[in-house]
Structure formats: structure tokens, C-alpha cells
């Protein structure tokens, strides 16, 4: 009996211990669940608090951005993300879609702003980030400014000219790139500091006037931009280092003080378009490779020109070169043609070996000014020495030679039947016997040169132009004078026709505009028939369409009609 009671008591105690253990484990589990729930609640509250803070900051940033846009746009807010496309054009004016015009009109942009529109353009990169949801994050890159040309682009796109495209994008930019466009107000510029990227820009005649002509196509300038200035076939890049009164300015209807500093010598680009000074009487030595140019310049001031103008002196340009496997050509031009080429020059020599060019005051192209010399490597690598000097008594020596030949004509002479020279009568028989055995006369029409028999084997005439020269010179003559040359305007001609074409007909030739006074490309024929009758080039027709007040009556008259206005209105009255 006691045994059964003991067993029942032990069983009861065991069940009580198990119930207590289960209760304890249950309490621990419930406590753990509550702690995890509390942690989740705190985490959710932290996320919500962070979102509220982010939303407040975003709202504050948007308000600040709106305020900045209002200030930048003078109370007008305009923002677009558009895909950029390239179009050929000058200056910095972009093409926008018609919807931009409508949006700007709704804000009264054209009513409030009596003047041009300016825009800030920024390169946009798209980066994808992975989180709970995939979002696109916009990152701004390079920034520049522009005006607007027209509102004719396709919706969702913007047309950029070369200046804006090159300043905004790099080679690794994806295509089509995304551009952020904002309407801004820009102050009128008062000062600009520019630095050429390479040497040679300061050698241009009146280079500041050339820069002014380039800036007429622009509406804005931004610090850090690269400005490309074209002069004929050449292009010079200038970096904008500093602007006042702000880092981005308007260049329309304002006078800007421009400083052009020297190029950075540590990063100079080496190309062939550099003029090295050449002093009278001081030769220079150099080496030229095949197909390349080395350029020099010399100046004829008023003192030297007074010495040359009576005709008693001349300028001698001498090029001494080695003929061991190499050969050179020499070309000379007078500014504004600062870099003479094979088909754009005023004087040239293609002789094999050393060569000399004589420039006298009898030449209509001569005068006081700056001249450029181009040494061209025709074949191989050639060492040369070039010099410029003033030679006295040039015409006097020529006159002496002429007088001596005239005196020989006045003697008792007879003409040799072989060489046609006049020989004294007492020796004519002996001369003709010797001359007929050793000399021959070239039978080519118009030649008649007397040659030694051994020399006549090498004496030939070009089958295309009839010019006479030695056999060894045929290859160079054919390549120089009869090889087709390609003009940048697209026409193909031989050398002599090309020289004449580029001097008087080529639309890319440089002329002095009679209205603005700048050296500009002539362009093709004027569109207006009346302007063609006046002899105006394409540039002069456009430039002359600008108006200016008449000095007599104050009426606004086109520059190209000013002379007619003066005659028809004032002189007739």
C-alpha cells in the first residue's frame, strides 16, 4: 500500500515538473516573439522616419531648385530631358521641338523677355540601382550654354551644332545621348580670357577681327568651353579661361574686352602650321620629310619697300638643298594667305636641287607687308638652307646685258644658218662649219634651243604642255603640273588651273569683306540677282544686309544699299 502511494506521489511530482517546464518554455517563446515583434516595429518606424526625412529633404530641395530656376530664368521655369542629335551648322544655337515653344509661350517668355533665349545644357548619365524596386538615377555631367535657332526638331529630341556637341560630349558618350535643358537668363559679357590650344593663331593677320567674326555666330560663352575659329581650311581651338561678370555670359549686342594669352608650352600640339621668323641676310638650316611643309615668314617694311620700289633692288629667296635621294619645292605667298600650298600661292619654283626666286617691285603682287615661305618635301628626307636677302642693282645688271647684246647686233654680222645667232662676217664660215658638227637646233614648234649634240639626247618636251626640260625632270614635271589636284570645294584641276581657281573663283578663298572689313571665305555666288550684278560674294550679300543709320537722315538702311541711298535721296535732293 505504501509502495503504491509512493509511486503515485512520484508520478504526480513528475507531471508537475513537466508542466512547469512546459510553462517556462512557453513564457520564453512568447517573450522572444514579443522581442522580435518589437524589433520589427522599431525597424518599420525607423524606415518610415527615414522616408519622412527624405521626403522633407526632397521637398525642400525641389523648392530650392524651383527658386533657383525662377531666379536663373527670371521667373520662368523650363526643364526638359531630350535625346540629342547632331546637325551641321555654325555657332551655338540649338533646335528644339515645337512643344517647347508652346510651353515657353504659356509662361509668357516671349512677352517678358524682349530678346534672345538662353539655355543651360547638361549631359545626363543613366545608372540603374537594384533595391526593392529598380529605379533610374540621373547624374549630371558636362554643362554648357546655347541660344536657340528654331523650334522644328522632332518631339523628344534636340539638335546640337558642332560647337555645342563637342563641348558637351566625349568620345565614350552613348548614342543617342540624353541632355538636360533648362531655360536661364545670362548677363551680357564684359570680359573674356582665351587661350589657343596650339601655336599659330597669333600669326593670323588681324586675328582679333577673325575671332570677332566667329563670335557673331554665337549667342553665349561658357567658362571651360573650346571655341573653334576657322580661317580658310585651317581651324584653331581656343579655350575659354575666364569670363566676367559670371562664368557664363551672353555675347549678343555687347562689347567684350578680349585677352588672348599664349598657348600652354607644356601641352602644345605639334602640327605643320607654324610660321618661323626669317631675318634678311640670316640663313636658316632645316630638314624636311616627303609630303610635309615647313613654313617661314619675313616682312617687307616701309623702309625696305622704299628701297625696292624704284626698281634698283629686288628680294632674293634662295633655297639650297641636297640632291642625295631627296628634293624640295618652294612656295611663297603674301598675307592674308599665310600658309602657301602646292596650289595656293603667288610664287613657286620646282627646279631640282637648289632654287632661287626673285621678287621685284615690277610684280603687281609685291608691296610692303608680311610674306610666307613654304618649303615642301617633294621626295625623301632633304637637308636644306634657306635665306632671304635684298640684292642691289638687279635691273641695272639686266640693262647691261641687254645693251651688250644690242651692240653685237650693230656690228658687221651675219646670221648662222644652224644656230641662228649673229656672228661677225669674217668668222662666219669657220663658225658654221664648227656649229653644224657639234650643235643641233631643237625642232619642236616654238622651241629652237641650240644644244650640244650630247645634250640633245636628254632634251625633251612635255607632250601635254610643250614645256622643255631635261629627261631627269620629266617625272617631277608630270607630278607637279599634270597630276590632278583636289580643291576642298570639290573641283579637280591641274596645278596651273587650280592656282587660278583658288585665286579668283573658289568659294573657300579668303577675301576682305567690303562691309565688315574682316578676312572671310568668299562663299558661292550671291542668292540675290542684284547682288550678283554688284559683284558681291555670298558673305558680302549676307553681311551687307545688316542695317545702319544713315549719317544724313538717320534712316536705317542696309549697308549694301547705303551708296544708292546717298545718291538717290540726298544728292538728288
Structural features, described:
The chain is α+β, with helices and mostly antiparallel strands. It folds into 6 domains: 1-70; 79-124 and 141-184, Barwin-like endoglucanases, CATH 2.40.40; 191-260, Vcp-like ATPase, Chain A, domain 2, CATH 3.10.330.10; 275-392, Jelly Rolls; 416-482, no CATH class; 510-570, no CATH class. 31% of the residues lie in helices and 32% in strands. The protein contains 14 helices and 33 strands. The protein has a 6-stranded mixed sheet. It has a 5-stranded mixed sheet with strand order 13-15-20-17-18. It has a 4-stranded mixed sheet with strand order 9-10-7-12. Residues 128-140 and 394-410 have low confidence and may be disordered. It comes from Glycine soja.
Write the layout of secondary structure elements.
Elements: H1 2-72, E1 79-86, E2 93-95, H2 98-106, H3 109-112, E3 118-129, E4 135-150, E5 157-160, H4 162-168, E6 178-184, E7 191-196, H5 207-215, E8 220-222, E9 226-231, E10 234-244, E11 248-250, E12 257-260, E13 275-277, E14 284-288, E15 293-300, H6 302-308, E16 313-321, E17 327-334, E18 347-349, E19 355-360, E20 369-379, E21 382-392, H7 394-409, E22 413-415, E23 422-424, H8 428-438, E24 439-441, E25 450-452, H9 453-456, E26 459-461, E27 468-470, H10 474-481, E28 485-486, E29 492-493, H11 495-504, E30 510-512, E31 519-521, H12 529-534, H13 538-543, E32 547-549, E33 556-558, H14 562-571
Amino acid at each position: 500500500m505504501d509502495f503504491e502511494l509512493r509511486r503515485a506521489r512520484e508520478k504526480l511530482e513528475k507531471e508537475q515538473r513537466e508542466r512547469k517546464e512546459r510553462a517556462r518554455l512557453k513564457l520564453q517563446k512568447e517573450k522572444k516573439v514579443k522581442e522580435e515583434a518589437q524589433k520589427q516595429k522599431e525597424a518599420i518606424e525607423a524606415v518610415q522616419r527615414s522616408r519622412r526625412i527624405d521626403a522633407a529633404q526632397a521637398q525642400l530641395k525641389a523648392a530650392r531648385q524651383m527658386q533657383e530656376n525662377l531666379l536663373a530664368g527670371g521667373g520662368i521655369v523650363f526643364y526638359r530631358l531630350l535625346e540629342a542629335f547632331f546637325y551641321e551648322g555654325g555657332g551655338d544655337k540649338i533646335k528644339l521641338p515645337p512643344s517647347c515653344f508652346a510651353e515657353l509661350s504659356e509662361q509668357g517668355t516671349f512677352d517678358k523677355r524682349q530678346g534672345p533665349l538662353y539655355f543651360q545644357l547638361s549631359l545626363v548619365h543613366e545608372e540603374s540601382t537594384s533595391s526593392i524596386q529598380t529605379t533610374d538615377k540621373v547624374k549630371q555631367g558636362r554643362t554648357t550654354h546655347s541660344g536657340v535657332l528654331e523650334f522644328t526638331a522632332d518631339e523628344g529630341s534636340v539638335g546640337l551644332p558642332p560647337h555645342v556637341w563637342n563641348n558637351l560630349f566625349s568620345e565614350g558618350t552613348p548614342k543617342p545621348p540624353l541632355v538636360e535643358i533648362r531655360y536661364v537668363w545670362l548677363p551680357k559679357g564684359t570680359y573674356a580670357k582665351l587661350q589657343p590650344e596650339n601655336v599659330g593663331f597669333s600669326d593670323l593677320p588681324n586675328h582679333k577681327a577673325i575671332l570677332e567674326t566667329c563670335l557673331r555666330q554665337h549667342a553665349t560663352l561658357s567658362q571651360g568651353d573650346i571655341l573653334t575659329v576657322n580661317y580658310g581650311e585651317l581651324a584653331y581651338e581656343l579655350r575659354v579661361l575666364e569670363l566676367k561678370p559670371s562664368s557664363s555670359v551672353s555675347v549678343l549686342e555687347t562689347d567684350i574686352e578680349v585677352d588672348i594669352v599664349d598657348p600652354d608650352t607644356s601641352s602644345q600640339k605639334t602640327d605643320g602650321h607654324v610660321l618661323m621668323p626669317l631675318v634678311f641676310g640670316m640663313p636658316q638650316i632645316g630638314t624636311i620629310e616627303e609630303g610635309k611643309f615647313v613654313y617661314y615668314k619675313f616682312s617687307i617694311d616701309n623702309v625696305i619697300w622704299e628701297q625696292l620700289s624704284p626698281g634698283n633692288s629686288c628680294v632674293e629667296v634662295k633655297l639650297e638643298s641636297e640632291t642625295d635621294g631627296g628634293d624640295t619645292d618652294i612656295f611663297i605667298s603674301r598675307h592674308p594667305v599665310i600658309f602657301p600650298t602646292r596650289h595656293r600661292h603667288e610664287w613657286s619654283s620646282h627646279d631640282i636641287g637648289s632654287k632661287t626666286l626673285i621678287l621685284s617691285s615690277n610684280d603687281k603682287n609685291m608691296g610692303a607687308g608680311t610674306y610666307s615661305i613654304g618649303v615642301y618635301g617633294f621626295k625623301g628626307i632633304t637637308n636644306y638652307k634657306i635665306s632671304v636677302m635684298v640684292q642691289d642693282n638687279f635691273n641695272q645688271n639686266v640693262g647691261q646685258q641687254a645693251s651688250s647684246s644690242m651692240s653685237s647686233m650693230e656690228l658687221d654680222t651675219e646670221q648662222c644658218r644652224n644656230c641662228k645667232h649673229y656672228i661677225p662676217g669674217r668668222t662666219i664660215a669657220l663658225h658654221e662649219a664648227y656649229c653644224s658638227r657639234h650643235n643641233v637646233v631643237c625642232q619642236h614648234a616654238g622651241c629652237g634651243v641650240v644644244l650640244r649634240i650630247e645634250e640633245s639626247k636628254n632634251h625633251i618636251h612635255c607632250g601635254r604642255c610643250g614645256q622643255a626640260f631635261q629627261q631627269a625632270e620629266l617625272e617631277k614635271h608630270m607630278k607637279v603640273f599634270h597630276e590632278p589636284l583636289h580643291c576642298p570645294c570639290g573641283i579637280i584641276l591641274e596645278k596651273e588651273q587650280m592656282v587660278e581657281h583658288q585665286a579668283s573663283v573658289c568659294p573657300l578663298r579668303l577675301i576682305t569683306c567690303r562691309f565688315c572689313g574682316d578676312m572671310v571665305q568668299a562663299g558661292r555666288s550671291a542668292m540675290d540677282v542684284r547682288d550678283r550684278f554688284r559683284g558681291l560674294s555670298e558673305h558680302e550679300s549676307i553681311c551687307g544686309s545688316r542695317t545702319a543709320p544713315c549719317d544724313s537722315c538717320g534712316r536705317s538702311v542696309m549697308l549694301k544699299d547705303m551708296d544708292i541711298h546717298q545718291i538717290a535721296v540726298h544728292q538728288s535732293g
